[in-house]
Amino acid sequence: MSGDINRQMSHMSEASSMGSDGNSSEDLEEDNDYYMDNTDDLDLDCPSKADDPEYFEYEPLQLIDAEGMLNEEIETLCTKLKVNPSTAKMLLFGHNWNKEEIIENYQRDPQGFLIESHLASRRKHDKLVGARPTCSVCCRDFTSDSFLSLACGHMFCRECWDMHFQTQIQDGVTTGIECMGKECSILVPEDFVFEVLTQPKLRDKYSKFSFNDLIKSHPRLRFCPGIDCSVIIKAKECKAKKVECQACGAIFCFKCGLNYHAPTDCAVVKKWLTKCEDDSETANYISAHTKDCPRCHVCIEKNGGCNHMQCPSCKCDFCWMCLGDWNNHGSEYYECSRYKENPNIAHESMHVQAREALKKYLFYYGRWENHAKSLQLEELTTDKIQTRTQKKVMNNEGTWIDWQYLLQAAALLKKCRYTLQYTYPYAYYMEKGSRKELFEYQQSQLESEVENLSWKVERAEIVDRGELENQMDIAEKRRQTLLKDFLEV
Amino acid sequence: MSGLPRRIIKETQRLMAEPVSGITAVPDEHNSRYFHVVVAGPSQSPYEGGLFKLELFLPEEYPMSAPKVRFMTKIYHPNIDKLGRICLDILKDKWSPALQIRTVLLSIQALLSAPNPDDPLDNNVADHWKSNEKSAIDQARQWTQTYAKSNMNNH
């Protein structure tokens, strides 16, 4: 089979080289058209934009590109409003980089808008008065050239401004530095800071911190949260969608920067993670790392991601989560993912209700945590597949391309289980009702297929390729269905 | 007082020469940045008739950073906790180098007149204040009698 492909490839390259030998520009154009027009073909394997609930357009930027992009926006505003770059920067920072809104408001009432943006003052503070005016911060005498003020007119000596900036920058404040005046909230623009600030080290710090502030305030830019990753992601719109950093591999939500969390939304996942941080000690204590076989009671450590367990000793099949018979986990009766609430709970005492609440949380937390662990273990399975593929190729059992489907299956399994993991916080916070029932039904369908896929991936060598690919398709379809119905963005 | 910034010297001089009514602030004889403060409970407040001891310290960065102030006398107040720490915006993010020891102490005095249970430091006291203001004020008055009277003898 591999030989065929190679032969075909060489044939194709011959053909194309012959075409270019002919050197006819028409031919080239035709070729171009052929490739340009059929962009649809490229999407054959992935669902089209409209169909894919996770579709999101974004691109990675390097620091320098992001800086260029911000500078361009700043310049546009400068020319449009005839203000200096420092003012433009502060306006954009203070108004979520909404240029249209800024221009509209500024043109309607320039002074009013600057006041609202803390860049101008309603009433100008009196200039220094008295026979021997002093700086009110250091109490030293006033010498004409060393006194500076912002638009508000609060006069202080250069040394005091410098000290003020040093203290603020050391506290991590840059774009938010305010005038030193009492109850004055006028912001200090960058050019004023740089005119005064003496220490080169702090000047660098100011530049760095204020750039970070600008990026963080920009709704269409986000720092990649990956460790030591300097990539900045640029998106068309600020939505809670999935971003995968090409540089470091981090997968995160564009809107909140946390780990990607579909179908759960940003606020709920944050609540859930905080809850887990607070309560997980108990949960950890309760969910041990090993379990006993429900039939022969031999102690079993889970060393793979699949939750369909087969006891090595008595060969019985059971579910790792509920310890029930795996035969009851066929797709029709799969109920393991559903939490069964005590129907009489309202009539029970506070104590019982609290226990019930803990039980409910532990149910969801246990499954959330278990899928997270399975993901880690399946990472090892991927490594194993990689080594085995290598070995096979070395032994001339097919080419590297022939075995790619195994890696694809492992990657898809990871993707499906990841979504499955994030269905648990969603379900935990859902109100009881028909929508929850539908959600839990789809969740159970997804879970059942993910476990089937996991079982097959772990035994990939003895599973037929067609069967595995069929299972991949089913699992991904379940995942897509669930996201289409419940992912709200 | 050598090595002390001119600003602190000036402020100290003015505090001694023109004291604020109801407030005394005296620098420690060994440390000119440390002040012994006594604030009289404002009239028509549950703290009326009490004298409250505070400590005030000017950190190295003063006036770029706010002074550190703490109640030494026990007080029942939603914005002051068991350790005497004070929840006051100008001591934190609203600090401005143009503010002074004098203005800080005036603000603390004002805080005694107008407790703010919606921005609490001590949740228990704040809850008491919100659920039963009369009973909370009685408690504050009682604490004033118990803690803010006797310890003034040795001051």
TrEMBL record, chain A:
Coiled-coil portions: 443-485
SUPFAM superfamilies, A to Z: RING/U-box (SSF57850)
Bias-annotated ranges (Polar residues): 1-23
Reactions listed under catalytic activity: [E2 ubiquitin-conjugating enzyme]-S-ubiquitinyl-L-cysteine + [acceptor protein]-L-lysine = [E2 ubiquitin-conjugating enzyme]-L-cysteine + [acceptor protein]-N(6)-ubiquitinyl-L-lysine
Cellular component terms per the entry's GO annotation: nucleus
Main location: nucleus
Domain RING-type residue range list: 131-340, 135-179
Gene3D superfamilies listed in its UniProt record: 1.20.120.1750, Zinc/RING finger domain, C3HC4 (zinc finger)
Region (Disordered): 1-43
Entry keywords, A to Z: Coiled coil, Metal-binding, Nucleus, Repeat, Transferase, Ubl conjugation pathway, Zinc, Zinc-finger
Residue spans of biased composition, Acidic residues class: 24-43
CDD domains, alphabetized: BRcat_RBR_TRIAD1, Rcat_RBR_TRIAD1, RING-HC_RBR_TRIAD1
InterPro entries, per database record: Ariadne, BRcat_RBR_TRIAD1, E3_UB_ligase_RBR, IBR_dom, Rcat_RBR_TRIAD1, TRIAD_supradom, Znf_RING, Znf_RING/FYVE/PHD
Gene Ontology biological process terms from the UniProt entry: protein ubiquitination
Subcellular location: Nucleus
Entry EC no(s): 2.3.2.31
Zinc in keyword set: yes
GO terms, molecular function: ubiquitin protein ligase activity; zinc ion binding
Enzyme category, top tier: transferase
Protein family (similarity comment): Belongs to the RBR family. Ariadne subfamily.
Name of the protein in question: RBR-type E3 ubiquitin transferase
Species in which this protein is naturally found: Elysia crispata
UniProtKB/TrEMBL annotation, chain B:
GO biological process terms held by the UniProt record: protein ubiquitination
Pfam family, one: UQ_con
Domain of life, source organism: Eukaryota
Active site: C87 (glycyl thioester intermediate)
Protein name per Swiss-Prot or TrEMBL: UBC core domain-containing protein
UniProt family annotation: Belongs to the ubiquitin-conjugating enzyme family.
Cited PROSITE patterns: UBC_1, UBC_2
Domain (UBC core) ranges: 3-149
One GO molecular-function entry: transferase activity
PANTHER family: UBIQUITIN-CONJUGATING ENZYME E2
Keywords associated with the record: ATP-binding, Nucleotide-binding, Transferase, Ubl conjugation pathway
